[in-house]
Amino acid sequence: MEVKDKKTKEKGILKRIAGPVVTAVNLDAHMYDVVKVGNEELMGEVIKISGEDIIIQVYEDTSGIKPGEPVINTGLSLAAELGPGLLTSIYDGIQRPLSVLVDKMGDFIQRGVSAPGLSHEKKWTFKPVKKAGDKVEAGTIIGEVQETNIVHRIMIPPNAKPGTIKTIKNGDFTVDETVCVLEDGREFPMIQRWPVRVPRPVKEKKNPTIPLITGQRILDGLFPIAKGGTAAIPGPFGSGKTVTQQQLAKWSDAEIVVYIGCGERGNEMTEVLTEFPHLEDPKSGKPLMERTVLIANTSNMPVAAREASVYTGITIAEYFRDMGYDVSLMADSTSRWAEAMREISSRLEEMPGEEGYPAYLAARLSEFYERAGLVTTLNGQSGSVSVIGAVSPPGGDFSEPVTQGTLRIVKVFWALDAKLSQRRHFPAINWLNSYSLYLDSLHDWYDKEVSPEWNKIRSWAMEVLQKEAELQEIVQLVGSDALPEAEQVTIEVARMIREIFLQQNAYDAVDTFCDMKKQYDMMKTIRLYSELAYAAQAAGVSPAQINATKSKNDLPQIKFIKDYKPALEKIEKEMDAEFTALRSAA
Amino acid sequence: MKEYRTINKIAGPLLFVEKTEPIGYGELVNIVLFDGSIKRGQVLDTSDELVVVQVFETTAGIGKDSGVRFTGETIKMPVGRDMLGRILSGGGKPIDGGPEIVPEKRLDITGAAINPWARGSPNEFIQTGISTIDGTNTLVRGQKLPIFSGAGLPHNTIALQIARQAKVLGAKEEFAVVFAAMGITKEEANYFMQDFERTGALERAVVFLNLADDPAVERIITPRLALTTAEYLAFDLGMHVLVILTDMTNYCEALRQIGAAREEVPGRRGYPGYMYTDLAGIYERAGIVKGKKGSITQFPILTMPGDDITHPIPDLTGYITEGQIVVSRELHRKGIYPPINVLPSLSRLMNLGIGAKHTREDHKKVSDQLYAAYAEGNDLRGLVAIVGKDALSERDRMFLEFADLFENRFVRQGYDEDRTITGTLDLGWELLATLPVEQLVRIDRELINKYHPKFRNVPKAT
């Protein structure tokens, strides 16, 4: 759990206990040192030093702890264990595997139990990719372990000096056993430890140019996020943050997914745990769980561990990025993380900023999101961490500090709207308020990989939706029949975009994932309808007649059909025939 | 046990005690008054110089001369099987004139968090017999589903109807009701008690009563005592426990009161910044544990101050619970019972408990379609007020009529009317059949052909 350091160990005594924050004296400590508190050796972290007083946040319940009990400084900082065994794991906020905790302390979370993040007994088959005599430096991949269907690349730690391999082994080892010895005598096991509050170094940060395909039409189609990008999903409760996050965890085309359940519901984590092993990755066909690391620090688990959970998660994400993988990280919810900061801050009696949040809230948020990015790793590969943070604004009010602090940093904003979810328009992402700043940098990719038409068709759809919003204001006053005929057609086309393209059923086996080709085909058919309808209207056909055309009624069903092409072509043909008949009759 | 007479300051419910030996955080404290009576409290802050004690009862009678005894242990609740059928005070003492509880176990009232790894997936459909819940906001075992209501609305009646009718189809298992009242009036309490007695539910119930004139600080421990009892019944004795907590608004007020007394930095509207974590410590004590027979399903009731769903109490609750049932003043004024407004209501675990395996294959899609159609009709009402019905298109008129029909047929039902889930879904189809088939975009053709009244009785061509 900790990183080795030169400092000597020290022992102090407790002076004051007030909830998760305790004060110790006679202790030689540095900021963010990990300490063991009380006779039960509860884990804590130094967060403030004031004169003789060392202020510590404790990751476990402090009931019954008395002044005078000992405090031991380990001299190490809070660190994650990185190595084979991470995938498919489910951890609490300080990387204790929940399954091990069940074995050690039963169905309920008790305290005073430590559990390492990785199994130190299990043997993994290490296959070297370097040989004796090869030069290595920080980040160099020296070997591989087939962890699940994912290849876990074993690297020289990022803070190591260069050297030359003397011997490198081949065979089955635990994470602690040396697999590589350098000529200068340094020995490397498979495990690395990295302090969670420090970003792992990279060679270079690049600008993202490839979208993270999520299979969600409104996201990929209208407001895409790039691989290595950042996005925020703010929304009031019940607007579908968690479902959207889970959809992204399931279907996004990242190679590794880190999902942080930060201060959220226990039953939701259970849902993820029971569902993921049975879901297949649409690309590899392997269970989704094999590429996933879960961190679950539910709302009733200790608040200080909730504060740490976000850092633990992103450190694991960065580690896989360094192997050259595309990683996506979902944090649900960053508001709970911010509240943990607020709670600790208020116990420290710090001067509060806006709404009681600490003044450093915005700084912490930007530090976190800045750990995302498309990078050239130390070993020269390309890897990325995309960060998608859910925000839970009180009362759904986006002007509150966490939402605002987040919006200043992230490039993609998916605004959830309670009004939409109330009418069961899912995903309840408001198409007028949301935005993506990656549209320009992803333009070429869509041109090349989807269709040269796509970017145009996207702008067209956005225009129609915008126009509809303006027209709706008039409709609210005078009714839809009072609109000019051409605009009545616009209203109908916009309704089709909303109901057919934007609405997507996460619980339907087919509709839950929609690839870019299908998205393009669906949108193209809607535009075909639009063109035919405007032409008919211009030829004198009444909107009522246009709306009464039957061919479009089958279009919503396309969503639920896997092999949709024949059905779609049939609809297009019928559409054409119907409108030709209408025009010639007019 | 040592008794200190070193109280230095009394502020609201807080005592500041000096010159003690090392005292544990969260310890139970007994305060001995001059007449020998004892009040209880808990350590909130402990250090060499000063111990802060929060008293769970009124501080009337406590003075610098009062004795303070630290018990050396955190607050524990004696629990046992014979608690069923008993009425206890908000502090856990019997007030029904019966004997003391014979404890089989003494449990810490804070309760430990269930390890997410040990949680079982809640997926057993509970039929409440109320269409707006079963049909569109389905409850499952192990869920926490609060009722968001307002002053003067019939939330108590709804809660009682649910407690009376709730059942898992085809199951014959031991169940119990734990009822915790926080700051409600004697009259309201009587209403609950009489119904429990009338239906014989009292035998299977444990009742905790903290009434409006009982000390506010006691409300802090009432729900914790209730949930500790529920956990014992569920996970030790294997019962399926329904916990009703009412009124959570009073609980939060008490929390604010203590926060103010401790001179803490207040969060929104004066409520403490840790209210989310505190409420989570209550609501998250619902669920199922893998390999154990029982379950805890929670029904917290709260009255939204000023019917404002963005008020911190409903807001934080909604972020923790798995959905909410919203009681609407508008529907109540229209004389519709139960006045549940389905639009802002939600059950997050619904999808786990419905479908072919649990209810019926068309459940999800019928529910979505009912929602969408009612929302559309409801929106049109605003328009009608401005332009009149005649300005509406044919399509819009149909949706408008659907909204009325939905409220009068689907939402409205009797206080003792126990609808089956099949009945509820068929009723849904009946209402949807008033709309043209091509407007039912949320339902696939296959289900329409199978369940739509227009098609399901048509004999297949031979």
Low-confidence stretches of chain A: 1-7
Shape of chain A: globular
How would you characterize the largest beta sheet of chain A? 10 strands, mixed
User: What oligomeric state do these chains adopt?
Assistant: heterodimer
Helix/sheet category of chain A = alpha+beta
> What's the total number of strands of chain A?
26
Explain this structure to me?
The complex is a heterodimer of chains A (586) and B (462). Chain A has 586 residues and is of the alpha+beta class. Helix content of chain A is 33%, strand content 23%. Chain A contains 15 helices and 26 strands. In chain A, strands 8, 18, 19, 20, 21, 22, 23, 24, 25 and 26 form a ten-stranded mixed sheet that branches. In chain A, α12 packs antiparallel against α13 (516-538). The radius of gyration of chain A is 27 Å and the shape is globular. The N and C termini of chain A lie far apart (78 Å). Mean pLDDT of chain A is 91; it is low at 1-7. Chain B is an alpha/beta fold and 462 residues long. In chain B, 33% of the residues lie in helices and 24% in strands. Chain B is elongated, with a radius of gyration of 25 Å. Chain B starts with a strand and ends in a 6-residue tail after the last helix. In chain B, 53% of the residues are buried. β1 (10-18) of chain A pairs antiparallel with β5 (38-47) of chain B, so a sheet runs across the interface.
Topology record:
The complex is a heterodimer of chains A (586) and B (462).
Chain A: E1 10-18, E2 21-25, E3 33-37, E4 42-50, E5 53-58, E6 70-77, E7 79-82, E8 90-91, H1 98-105, E9 124-128, E10 135-136, E11 141-146, E12 151-155, E13 163-168, E14 171-173, E15 178-182, E16 187-189, E17 192-195, E18 204-206, H2 217-222, E19 230-234, H3 241-251, E20 256-262, H4 266-275, E21 292-297, H5 303-322, E22 326-332, H6 334-347, H7 361-369, E23 373-376, E24 382-391, H8 401-407, E25 412-413, H9 418-422, E26 435-436, H10 439-449, H11 454-478, H12 485-502, H13 516-538, H14 543-547, H15 565-585
Parallel strand pairs in A: 8-21, 19-24, 19-25, 20-21, 20-22, 22-24
Antiparallel strand pairs in A: 1-2, 1-6, 2-5, 3-4, 3-6, 4-5, 7-17, 9-11, 9-14, 10-13, 11-12, 13-15, 15-16, 18-23, 23-24, 25-26
Chain B: E1 3-4, E2 7-11, E3 14-18, E4 27-32, E5 38-47, E6 50-55, E7 67-74, E8 76-79, E9 86-89, E10 105-108, E11 125-127, H1 131-134, E12 139-140, E13 147-149, H2 155-165, E14 167-168, E15 175-184, H3 186-199, E16 205-211, H4 222-236, E17 240-246, H5 248-261, H6 275-283, E18 295-303, H7 312-320, E19 323-327, H8 329-333, E20 340-347, H9 350-353, H10 363-387, H11 394-411, H12 421-432, H13 445-451, H14 453-456
Parallel strand pairs in B: 9-16, 13-18, 13-19, 15-16, 15-17, 17-18
Antiparallel strand pairs in B: 1-7, 2-3, 3-6, 4-5, 4-7, 5-6, 8-10, 11-12, 11-14, 19-20
Helix pairs in contact in B: 10-11, 10-12, 11-12
